[in-house]
Design the sequence.
């Protein structure tokens, strides 16, 4: 309850008390780690998860470890762990998204694009489309990025961030006059 209200301090106190009373319940440690990630304290979450001992790739709770690694700046280590988990559970959309984020942060845009395209095909969502457009732009594929952003604009999905991204792509692709409405 506290975590959903973003009262991270109260939730952390509650989880730490529960862990002290029930040290054999890994679910509590995982909940606290997730809370720390939400509170943008990924390094602390990483320490907490690593202190619990070795992990195996089959343990889907490693998703938290992958997030903690990724968000604490250990991008390659996160990519390696999440890739191993993804190889075992390729249909898991949360793992697929985390692996796409890891590829993005490792500047492996083509692999990230492939995963985001799969995610979008399975569950079309504006945020995924925008991320695809951004990745296409970062990889210099402005035509693809512009196509996606123009589709979003014509379908009414565009918000201020989308319009700004479209204007930037026009400029980067040498179509500066289109950037001004």
Sequence:
């Amino acid at each position: 309850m506290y975590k959903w209200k973003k009262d991270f301090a109260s939730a952390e106190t509650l989880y730490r008390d529960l862990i002290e009373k029930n040290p054999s319940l890994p679910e509590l440690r995982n909940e606290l780690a997730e809370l720390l990630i939400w509170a943008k304290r990924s390094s602390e979450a990483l320490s907490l998860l690593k202190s619990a001992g070795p992990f195996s790739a089959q343990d889907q709770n490693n998703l938290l470890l992958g997030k903690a690694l990724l968000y604490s700046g250990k991008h390659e280590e996160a990519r390696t762990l999440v890739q191993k988990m993804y190889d075992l559970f390729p249909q898991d959309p949360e793992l697929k998204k985390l692996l796409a984020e890891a590829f993005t942060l490792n500047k492996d845009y083509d692999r990230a694009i492939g995963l985001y395209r799969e995610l979008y095909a399975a569950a079309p969502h504006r945020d995924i489309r925008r991320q695809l457009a951004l990745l296409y732009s970062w990889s210099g594929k402005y035509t693809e990025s512009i196509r996606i952003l123009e589709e979003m604009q014509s379908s009414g999905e565009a918000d201020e961030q989308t319009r700004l991204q479209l204007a930037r792509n026009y400029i980067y692709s040498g179509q500066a006059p289109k950037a001004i409405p």
